[in-house]
Specification:
Number of strands: 10
Radius of gyration: 19 Å
CATH superfamily: Spore Coat Polysaccharide Biosynthesis Protein SpsA, Chain A
Number of helices: 11
């Protein structure tokens, strides 16, 4: 169905030290033939023996671009770390583009991912409230049949997603407005469960203090702070194949690593409005926790403090 599809939007491909995975995921980009391809690679870490050679192998992926495409590269000479590297790469991308698709090197997307993102980028390009287009849906099997092919959420699910320059310009990597956000109880937008709100505030504080070096939590916070909204495809369009050795955030396999990508059908069915379903929010919150047993323990301790 998608053999002749040509993605009209540019793609930013984030690579590092897993050339074999990057090559597998790159084949999906190659099939979609975007007009412009941006490649970002952080520098090798000086304390990791042999990493410089592996990073150099990853960067050779530029040689595999064999369709009419303008290629841009940001290959860092030194390692700046995941947080600054990836957020900086996206900023670099949007210095040149109004809108586009961002993919990490361990995300094997279904071919329907590209036309889905393209249609959403077109449809909501002038809607400032819509800030993020997600496609890694770990709760597809729990929601059952939905009346539309995507739904609204507060959760900005990354790994493979799309957005606009107008949205990314509101990214607050340092989370400078967190204190104001807390004073105005901004977290109440997220979910109606107090422990979940407190849990996420703890995460935000840890990210601001650099106890957790995450750009994704900062993006999540920025969207909440701005009163933005995200959409997520009803079908899971992304399989994360990066679980295991060498992964930064997905070192151990879990239920998410077993979920395959599936295709979405066209023409797309659109939601009647922008209502966020509380049940979906709770399911998303639990599904994307990497350590569910630790989360349960945290809940218990938090409830004891509230008593």
């Amino acid at each position: 169905m998608f053999e002749e599809y040509k993605c009209p939007y540019p793609v930013l491909f984030l690579i590092f030290n897993r050339p074999q995975l990057a090559e597998i995921c790159f084949e999906r980009i190659r099939a979609a033939r975007p007009p412009r391809l941006y490649l970002h690679c952080d520098g090798a870490r000086s304390d990791r023996e042999g990493e410089a050679e592996i990073v150099a192998l990853s960067r050779q992926i530029t040689e595999k671009v064999d369709w009419p495409c303008t290629v841009f590269t940001l290959f860092r000479p030194e390692n700046v770390g995941l947080r600054k590297a990836l957020s900086g790469a996206i900023t670099w991308f949007f210095e040149h583009e109004e809108a586009g698709i961002i993919m990490e090197d361990d995300c094997l997307v279904d071919p329907s991912f590209f036309p889905f993102c393209a249609e959403m980028l077109d449809r909501y390009q002038h809607d400032d409230q819509v800030m993020h287009i997600g496609a890694w849906n770990l709760i597809e099997q729990r929601t059952g049949a939905l009346p539309a092919d995507y739904f609204w959420t507060n959760f900005s699910i990354v790994t493979a997603f799309a957005t606009w320059r107008r949205a990314w310009q509101k990214m607050d990597l340092e989370m400078t407005h967190l204190a104001e956000f807390e004073r105005h109880n901004g977290i109440q937008r997220l979910m109606d469960a107090r422990p979940a709100q407190a849990y996420m505030l703890d995460k935000f504080r840890a990210v601001q203090a650099l106890k957790i070096r995450s750009w994704a939590y900062a993006w999540f916070f920025s969207i909440l702070q701005e009163g933005g909204i995200c959409l997520l495809s009803s079908k899971n369009l992304v399989k994360n194949i990066g679980f295991g050795e060498g992964a930064t955030n997905t070192g151990a396999s879990n239920a998410a690593s077993e979920i395959d990508a599936s295709s979405i059908t066209f023409p797309l069915r659109h939601p009647a409005d922008k209502t966020i379903h509380p049940g979906h929010e709770r399911q998303l919150f639990y599904a994307y926790q990497k350590r569910p047993f630790r989360l349960v323990l945290w809940y218990l301790l938090h409830f004891l403090k509230l008593r």
